[in-house]
Every structure is written in structure tokens, then in C-alpha cells.
Recover the amino acids of this structure.
């Protein structure tokens, strides 16, 4: 089959690879209908995740049709149209049973990398390096889905493919960002990053009772989408001081909730020295991630407020203002998305017309155009929010 493979930093190639096969009786094989790029894939593309190997298939946000199933799969059948959550859970461990499937004890078959880096091992992730299980990704014609009864969800009638594909990752990640922040009616929520996850976080904040949502970015088309599709007020961080603007917009109080939908490659355009410092330390390996957004959120959030972090971080950061966080009494909530907890709820929001993620799909391309699609996505060209590949078209 054809698949989009990583062969080094900024080197993606469409290659012929072996078809996936059933490994475990709880597996299914899915014929991929749609597979979306994701902002966290750019960390792989840029070489910031050191456990990638040449030939690894990338991609983790996808929808498709079950074409083969193991003998122990009970709830899915051949021909089912399903969305698969990008973070893999086993469904049986204590974390999965409590809804925290991204912390699964069993789905990462290569736990040593994560234990060495983090002290404990979390869940496996499709197409996201050998530190997260070495699973083949979804930018391919077919993919093996383990623990299929737990990770695969039938798409309800009336929900279009263009809506459903984002229930794999962007929609549950954004929804979880808003949910774990404990948003209360009347809250003001600020979201850093107006890409796909940020868009879903903004819309989800309104669904959970926020009175005002403020989206922060520098890309004009993303700021327009935040206004027109998510209903947010917006700030261009290259044109205004974010802290001063947020204080002015909230009467000097600061947002109740601050959401990080950016992660390890954050820019700091408002502070050139800080940006130079972060990039220099990252380039020579003295820190792995750039924490500009985290610093802004700690500074800007109201006293006693909450920081919700779903932007991906991989390692260590420097100049973290822990004193401000402690003395302001801030609450931090963070993690990879627990999409199994949210998939059915999100389908309900979509069916009732309360959420329509389909606008994230600004480009639908052939898998053969994968390298070009990622280049455009990385450069934020042509008003691109998400490129979605259709491997069989």
C-alpha cells in the first residue's frame, strides 16, 4: 500500500509499504477514507521528537471503514464507518476505566522511552514515534487499530465524513481543554493558538458556559475563523501586547481560564529577546520546548484562575515563572486527550447543530500530495487550517 513516511527532519515521502495485518484478536483493519494533518505532527516533521525512525508512517487523525476484524472484536463489524481516537487505550486498566485513557497502562508496547523521560509510561499514539509505541500512522491506505472495541466509534447517520474525522483528535482535544478547565457560566476564556485544536477549544468553551472567549494568534485567516466560526474576540499578538490587552478587556482582572493550544514551538513575537533566547537554547539542546505561551498565560491569568494545557510538550523548558504561578494561586490542568470519554458527546453536539468541525478542512488532497500538503500546513499558506488526505481518491 501507499503511505506517507518520515525520513528525517522536513523529509516526507510517499512510499510503498507492507499492508497491515491483524496482530491481536482485538484488532481491526481500517480502510482509511480521510486522514488529517495535525499541529502536533509538525513537531515530528521538525525533528523535535527524537524517537522517530526513517520509514515511520505518520498521521493520527482519521476515519475509515472496517474491512477486517479479529475474532474477539464484539462491537464493530466489517463495513462499519468508524472514527478512531488518536490516543490508544486498552479499555481495561484503571486509567481507561476512569476515563483517563491517555494514561493507559497497556497500550504502549515500548514503555522504556517514556519511563526514562517522564518516570512513567502513558498511552500509545498512532504515528507518533517509538516513544509512544511505534504504531504505524493513518496517512496510508490501511491501518491496524488495536483494542478496536474501545478505540473505534461508529459514525452516526447524518454526521458527514468531513465532520466526523475531527472527532478523532481536534474536536476531543479542544473539548477536553475546555472541560478540564472547569468553565463556569460567565467566565472569560482566553485561547492561545487558533489552529484546529484552538478553534475547537473556543467553540467548546461556549458550549460549556463561557460568556466571552478571546482567541490569540498572528495568522489573519485563523483569526477570522475564530471570529466567524467560533464566535470569539481576537488578538493578533504581533500587533498588541497580549498582557495589556487582556487586562484591558477584563477590567484589569485577567481571564478566568487560559488555554494553551500551541505547545512546544511557541513564538514570542512580542519579546524578541525572549524569542531569541528560547530558540537558541532549543537549537543547542539546552531545552527541548519553547514555553512562550506558558509564560504569557501565567502572567495574564487572573488570581486563582486555571491554566488548561493541551498543546504538546515533549521535554524540558527554561525560565518558567513558578513564583508567579504559586503566588497567584493558579490551577494547572493538562494532558493528552481522552477522546474515548468525549466521542459520543461530540457526535451529539454535531447532530444537534451545536458544533460543526468541518470548516477545519480547508484542503482535501490525494495522499500523493502529502509532502506538499505538510509544507503548506507548516507555512500556514493559502488560508490553510487543515489538509485532509483521501488515500483512495
Amino acid at each position: 500500500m501507499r503511505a506517507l513516511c518520515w525520513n528525517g527532519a522536513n523529509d516526507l515521502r510517499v512510499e510503498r509499504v507492507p499492508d497491515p495485518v491483524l496482530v491481536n484478536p482485538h484488532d481491526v483493519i481500517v480502510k482509511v477514507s480521510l486522514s488529517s494533518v495535525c499541529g502536533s505532527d509538525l513537531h515530528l516533521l521538525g525533528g523535535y521528537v527524537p524517537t522517530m525512525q526513517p520509514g515511520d508512517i505518520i498521521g493520527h487523525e482519521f476515519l475509515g471503514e472496517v474491512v477486517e476484524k479479529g475474532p474477539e472484536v464484539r462491537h464493530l463489524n466489517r463495513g462499519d464507518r468508524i472514527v478512531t481516537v488518536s490516543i490508544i487505550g486498552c479499555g481495561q486498566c484503571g486509567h481507561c476505566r476512569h476515563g483517563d485513557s491517555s494514561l493507559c497502562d497497556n497500550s504502549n508496547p515500548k514503555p522504556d522511552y517514556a519511563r526514562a523521560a517522564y518516570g512513567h509510561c502513558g498511552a500509545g499514539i498512532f504515528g507518533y514515534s517509538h516513544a509512544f509505541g511505534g504504531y504505524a500512522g493513518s496517512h496510508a491506505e490501511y491501518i491496524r487499530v488495536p483494542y478496536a472495541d474501545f478505540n473505534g466509534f461508529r459514525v452516526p447517520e447524518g454526521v458527514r465524513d468531513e465532520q466526523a474525522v475531527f472527532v478523532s483528535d481536534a474536536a476531543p482535544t479542544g473539548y477536553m481543554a475546555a472541560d478540564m478547565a472547569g468553565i463556569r457560566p460567565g467566565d472569560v476564556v482566553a485561547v492561545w493558538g487558533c489552529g484546529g485544536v484552538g478553534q475547537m477549544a473556543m467553540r467548546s468553551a461556549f458550549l460549556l458556559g463561557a460568556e466571552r472567549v478571546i482567541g490569540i494568534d498572528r495568522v489573519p485567516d485563523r483569526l477570522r475563523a475564530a471570529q466567524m466560526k467560533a464566535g470569539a474576540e481576537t488578538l493578533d499578538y504581533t500587533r498588541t501586547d497580549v498582557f495589556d490587552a487582556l487586562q484591558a478587556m477584563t477590567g484589569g482582572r485577567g481571564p478566568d481560564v487560559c488555554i494553551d493550544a500551541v505547545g512546544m514551538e511557541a513564538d514570542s513575537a512580542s519579546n524578541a529577546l525572549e524569542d531569541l533566547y528560547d530558540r537558541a537554547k532549543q537549537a543547542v539542546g539546552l531545552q527541548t520546548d519553547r514555553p512562550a505561551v506558558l509564560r504569557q498565560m501565567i502572567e495574564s491569568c487572573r488570581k486563582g484562575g486555571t491554566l488548561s494545557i493541551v498543546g504538546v510538550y515533549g521535554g524540558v523548558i527554561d525560565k518558567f515563572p513558578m513564583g508567579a504561578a504559586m503566588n497567584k494561586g493558579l490551577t494547572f490542568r493538562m494532558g493528552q486527550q481522552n477522546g474515548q470519554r468525549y466521542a459520543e458527546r461530540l457526535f451529539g453536539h454535531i447532530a444537534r447543530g451545536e458544533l460543526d468541525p468541518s470548516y477545519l478542512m480547508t484542503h482535501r488532497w490525494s495522499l500523493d500530495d502529502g509532502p506538499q500538503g505538510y509544507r503548506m500546513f507548516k507555512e500556514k499558506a493559502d488560508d490553510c487550517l487543515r489538509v485532509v488526505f483521501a488515500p483512495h481518491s
Summary: Residues 85 and 170 are 10 Å apart (CA to CA). The mean pLDDT is 96. DSSP finds 14 helices and 18 strands in the chain. The longest strand covers residues 28-36.
